[in-house]
Design a protein that fits this description.
The structure is a single chain. The chain is an alpha/beta fold and 99 residues long. It is built from three helices and four strands. It has a four-stranded parallel beta sheet, with no helix packed on it. The radius of gyration is 14 Å and the shape is globular.
Length: 99
């Protein structure tokens, strides 16, 4: 008998069709995208705001409000990678996750 499958809901800030325009999701859009998902893949492009990207400052401000069970940052710039990333889970090349 095959093992039981666990149903997992995932969301990614880079692929959310409900956003009508390109731009940096923040506030309600960010909270809505992560609402009650098991795994939230989220861009953490730079330490501070950069046009068209989600930044670590915005994420940090809203982190306690995110209802996802696991937050994983993707697409970090060199300046973000050079900063203090303690407390953040980072996806990098070759990274895998068992669900």
């Amino acid at each position: 008998m095959p093992p039981a499958r666990r149903r997992t809901r995932c969301a990614s800030t880079g692929q959310m069709p409900r956003w009508p325009t390109l731009g940096r999701p923040s506030g309600p859009a960010l909270l809505d995208a992560s609402d009650d998902v098991d795994l939230f893949l989220c861009e953490g492009y730079s330490p501070t705001p950069v046009r068209w990207h989600l930044d670590l400052d915005t994420l940090a401000r809203h982190r306690e409000q995110l209802t996802c069970r696991q937050l994983v940052l993707t697409h970090l710039s060199a300046s973000a990678l050079a900063g203090d990333l303690r407390g953040w889970q980072i996806a990098d090349d070759g990274w895998s996750l068992d669900l």
